[in-house]
Amino acid sequence: MGETSSVEDEFDEWFIESLKIYNHIHEYQLEHPTRAIEWTSEKSYNSDKNEILELLLPLKLFADDNQGLCAERDFKVVHGGFSDGSIHCLKHIPGTRCVVTNDGFNSNLQVWDLGGDDCDVIKRTGVLQLKSASSDNGVKIAPGLTGGPCVLHGSQISDIQLTELTSGKPLYSLGKDIPDLLSSLQFVSGSVFLACACNGDLYVGDTRKPSAPQNNPAGGREGAHWCMGVKTDLSSSDPSSCSVARLSSACQVVVSDLRDLRAPLCQAQLHVQRKTTSDDFMKVTWAPALDNCLAVSGFDGMVQIYDTASWRPELMEFQPFFIHRGHMMSDDQFDTSLAVVTTHVWHPSRPRTVLSAAVDGSVHVWDWVDKATASC
């Protein structure tokens, strides 16, 4: 009885605090956990186990100057469809109404048409049956940024390939015997891409050149599993202007740029207490509309926001300046020990707006209060 009262008191305290620290916070409840989320304009594409939904965000979120005049406070499903298998990875192809998915168990890619104003059904339009040396954990996908619709994909460094979606024709293949498993993949320009191996090594490749990618080892840093987040400036023709953050299962972040990926610009030991032994949900992302801000999730029921401006080249522990704990308070039983965030994404243009999901099926969109722009 006493323990229940204590948990309820914790929820009450968080609820009162939330009125002060959020401009907005909205929740949508799904039957199954969401593993992948993609933004486009003011909408988001997110997968719910075997379901793909296109959700329109609550219009209340965008009625900044007329809060009292907007009645729409809920997410709205505008398009939806079902997949034969689960969906572990989902990427939107820029400039199209198309997404590409993978089930996390083989190398095949499913291509989907998201529909338009005359149809609310998301339909599968094709399957790319690809060969991979090691696809037990599925493949990672990065959408092409220029030219016709295409995707870069692979399960390990050696089988990274660029494939045209309309024909299934390979446009580029790495073709080097590098068996390191792939954890993250992203273009930093129209042709230059970054690949992060699970062991923390970074590879820089160029789809215009068949030469071996440049290897940048993690350098013996702690953590059995690594992933990366990349902040790019697509308006710049110089890909070296991008920042790379590598997150390890030991809760360390190493920040570098393409000018010298071997030497960290700064690094930090995060203030995180792991609630899960799985590395499947680890994620680090840069805020696209803020300087020096990154978000980390996948270790527990929180999304933590850090300001890297104060980080140093030497490894030190740093505290987050904002923590979203809403998913820990979503469950009816308020059992915070079971809550784990499965994914999160920043809004592409709203500086402090983040969409996040958790294992209980909850999806939150939240916008924290900027305290006189003291942070970031």
What does this structure look like?
- By secondary structure, the protein is mostly beta strands.
- It has one helix at residues 2-21; strands at residues 22-29, 34-40, 43-48, 51-56, 76-82, 89-92, 98-102, 109-113, 123-128, 140-143, 150-154, 161-164, 170-173, 182-187, 192-197, 202-206, 214-216, 226-231, 243-248, 252-257, 266-270, 283-286, 293-297, 303-307, 317-318, 322-324, 341-346, 353-358, 362-368.
- The protein has a five-stranded mixed β-sheet with strand order 18-19-20-21-25, with no helix packed on it.
- Mean pLDDT is 86; it is low at 65-71.
Q: Count the strands?
A: 29
Mean pLDDT: 86
Question: How can the largest sheet be summarized?
Answer: 5 strands, mixed
Please compute the radius of gyration using only Cα atoms.
20 Å
Helix content: under 10%
Q: How are the strands of the biggest sheet laid out side by side?
A: 18-19-20-21-25
Distance between the termini: 43 Å
Reading the helices and strands in chain order gives HEEEEEEEEEEEEEEEEEEEEEEEEEEEEE
Q: Helical stretch count?
A: 1
Low-confidence stretches: 65-71
Question: What amount of the residues lies in strands?
Answer: 35-45%
User: Which structural class is indicated by helix and strand composition?
Assistant: mainly beta
Give the overall shape, derived from the CA principal axes.
globular
What's the helix and strand layout?
Blueprint lengths: L1 H20 E8 L4 E7 L2 E6 L2 E6 L19 E7 L6 E4 L5 E5 L6 E5 L9 E6 L11 E4 L6 E5 L6 E4 L5 E4 L8 E6 L4 E6 L4 E5 L7 E3 L9 E6 L11 E6 L3 E6 L8 E5 L12 E4 L6 E5 L5 E5 L9 E2 L3 E3 L16 E6 L6 E6 L3 E7 L8
Parallel strand pairs: 21-25
Antiparallel strand pairs: 1-29, 2-3, 3-4, 4-5, 6-7, 7-8, 8-9, 10-11, 11-12, 12-13, 14-15, 15-16, 16-17, 18-19, 19-20, 20-21, 22-23, 23-24, 24-26, 27-28, 28-29
